[in-house]
Amino acid sequence: MIVLGIETSCDETGIALYSGADGLLAHRLHSQVDTHARYGGVVPELASRDHIRRVLPLIDECLRDAGLERGAIDGIAYTRGPGLAGALLVGASIARSLGWALERPVLGVHHMEAHLLAPMLEPDPPCYPFVALLVSGGHTLLVQVAGIGRYRVLGESLDDAAGEAFDKTAKLLGLPYPGGLQLEALAAQGEPDQFRLPRPMTDRPGFDFSFSGLKTAVVNCVREAIDDAPTRAAVARAFQDAVVETFAIKTRRALVHTGAGHLVVAGGVGANQALRERLREVAAEHGAQVAYPRLAFCTDNGAMIAYAGFCRLAAGECDEGRVDVRPRWPLSELLAPGEGPAAS
Ligand code: KG4
Ligand code: ZN
After folding, report:
1. What percent of the chain has pLDDT over 70?
2. What kind of fold does domain 2-116+297-333 have according to CATH?
C-alpha cells in the first residue's frame, strides 16, 4: 500500500510517499520561515495562503522522485489537527479532493501521533511499550505508549510548550524567529552556571511541566544583560540547561514509573543536541534504549504523516467523505487502529 502524506498544520508544507513494502519513497518540505520571520511569529493567514500554493507542486515532485503516477497512490493521509484551522483546512481540502478524484480512502491523522511515530521511520525503531517525550512548538507531553493509538498521557505543560518557551526566550535575547535552533547555537558559547534558573515543578510529584515562570526568570536576567554578548550567551545556556534538566528529571521519573525499556523523543525541540545527549544518559542509567527521529523528521514533515496514515489506513480505517479539521484535539481521544474511526 502506498500512502500520500500531507502536512499543513503550521508553517511547513510537508509531503511524502510511504510504501508498506518499501518504506519511505520520497519526501519534500517547504518551510515558510522567511515569510513569517519579519513578523516575529507565524501569521496564520499567510501560512494558509502559502500552503495553497505549495501542496500540489510538492506532491508532483514527490511522485517524480519516486517514479510514480498519481494512480499509484492507494490512500491519502493529511494532518487533521491540532494546528492552525485555516492551514489545516488547506491540507484537508486537497486530500479530500484528491481522494474523491482518484477514488482512494482518505484519513485525517493526529499531528502529535505522527511525531510520536516518526522514529519508526529509522533503521533501529523502538519497541512497544515505550515512553514518549513529545516536545514541539505547540505541545509538551510525556506519554506511556502501549501501541499505536494506545496512549496514556502521564503529564503535559500547564502553560507554554517547550518550543514556545525556546522561541520566546530567543526573542528576548534578540534572536530571529523561530529561535530554538538559534538559541541552541548561542547557548553553546555560553559559560555554564553564570546564571542559575529554576527547574520548574521538579520538586513535586507527577509528570506535568510549566515553562512560563522560566521565561519570567529569563526576563529578569536579560534586563541586566542584553547588550553584553558573553552574558547573553550565558543566559541562553542557563535557560537551555534548565529545560534539559527538567526534562531529564521528569523522563527519568516516567521510565521508573512505567518500567518501559524504550524511550522516544520527538517533536521540534527533540532536535536539540544538549537534550538528546542528556536523555541518552538518562535512558542508559535505566538500561533503556532511546530512539530519535533523524533531525529533519523532528520538526514538522510529511513523512511522519504518511507513516501514521499508513498504519491506520492499512488497518482499514478511513474517514467519512467530509472536510474535517480539529485545531484542538487531545491525543488521549485516539483509539487503536481497528477500534473504530479516529474521533471526530
Ligand atoms: O514540531 P515542530 O516543528 O512544530 C510543532 O509541531 O510545533 O516544533 C517547532 C519548535 C519551535 O518552537 C522551534 O523553535 C523548536 O521546535 N526547535 C528547537 C530546535 N529546533 C527546533 N528547540 C530547541 N532546539 C532546537 N535545536
Ligand atoms: Zn509538529
Report:
1. 98
2. Nucleotidyltransferase; domain 5 (3.30.420)
